[in-house]
Amino acid sequence: MSFLTRFAPSPTGRLHLGHAYSALTAYKAARDVGGRLILRIEDIDRTRCRPEYEAGILEDLAWLGIEWETPVRRQSDHFEAYASALARLYDLGVLYRCFRTRRELAEQSAGAPQEQDAPQEDAAARSGDLPISWGDEDKKDDIESLEARGPFAWRLSINNSQRLLGEEFARLEFTSEDVGPKPERRTNQVRPDLLSDVILGRKDTPASYHLAVVHDDALQAVSHVIRGEDLLSATHTHVLLQRLLGLPTPVYRHHRLLTDEDGKRYAKRNRSLTLAALRADGVTPTDIRRRIGMDE
Ligand code: GLU
């Protein structure tokens, strides 16, 4: 199998040490086996992503000494492709509309991927909405009166997915590997308790992190997804989405998350630890690599 991995940042701020670790881990994994690294800009959230952050990401990665293939895919250029994937899921009857206030919706689907999840069917219960199957004879009037209620999110119904896939649902699995020089392989069953009714689109935006990432990993023939262990539960949802959409499942490597002196994960709030700020303080790429244990 030819090895192709990706680094897929969202341009909602400058890169910090945690991103540097993730990007260098992917870069090294590709280099170790003569494979390829691509860069993907995950900017479907038009309210929080900014072109200047995208430019900053490219600058920071180049400064770190990372090389990637071009052209770089920018997700906001491909909403039509995500709309088709969403329509396909709609046709399968595994989507439902979830109504929330505008603010709740914005917080939910715009947030980091790990903040988007809703407990299974719970969102439906809260909103008073019922799962709507595209397969059913949806009456136009019903849809119009429903949609008049205001903004909504398209959520994946785990229950309907399970009904659709039948016994196969319990057999969903993926291969994972350790991060390191001799990655050991494991087969993992998809755990239903890690699945949730994630947002896959909104009334006005036919995409979400989960939908776009699954679509693009397949389109770009990514063989290995290398990302932080905070996305491990998302991987379980992604494997289900791949099965529903008829897409291949790549191999997954989840790396540990770096923490700051207080033991907290690096996040965009650690402004003083952005690569840009460190660089302005005279820190070199070699210092960064040493600091995050990537200096061999
Ligand atoms: N865009 C996501 C983030 O910045 C990462 C997506 C992924 O690696 O799957 O958190």
Question: Overview of this structure, please?
Answer:
The structure is a single chain. Helix 9 packs across helix 10 (232-245). 40% of the residues lie in helices and 17% in strands. It has a domain at 78-208: Alpha-Beta Complex (Glutamyl-tRNA Synthetase, domain 3), CATH 3.90.800. The strands form 4 sheets. It has a 3-stranded parallel sheet. The protein is an alpha/beta fold and 296 residues long. The protein is globular, with a radius of gyration of 20 Å. The protein contains 12 helices and 10 strands. 38% of the residues are buried. The protein has helices at 17-32, 51-64, 79-92, 102-110, 122-127, 140-147, 158-165, 167-170, 209-219, 232-245, 275-280, 285-291; strands at residues 4-7, 36-41, 69-74, 95-99, 152-156, 173-177, 185-189, 199-202, 224-228, 251-255. It binds glutamic acid (GLU).
Sequence-ordered SSE layout with sheet pairings:
Elements: E1 4-7, H1 17-32, E2 36-41, H2 51-64, E3 69-74, H3 79-92, E4 95-99, H4 102-110, H5 122-127, H6 140-147, E5 152-156, H7 158-165, H8 167-170, E6 173-177, E7 185-189, E8 199-202, H9 209-219, E9 224-228, H10 232-245, E10 251-255, H11 275-280, H12 285-291
Parallel strand pairs: 1-2, 2-3, 9-10
Antiparallel strand pairs: 4-5, 5-8, 6-7
Helix pairs in contact: 9-10
Bound molecules: glutamic acid.
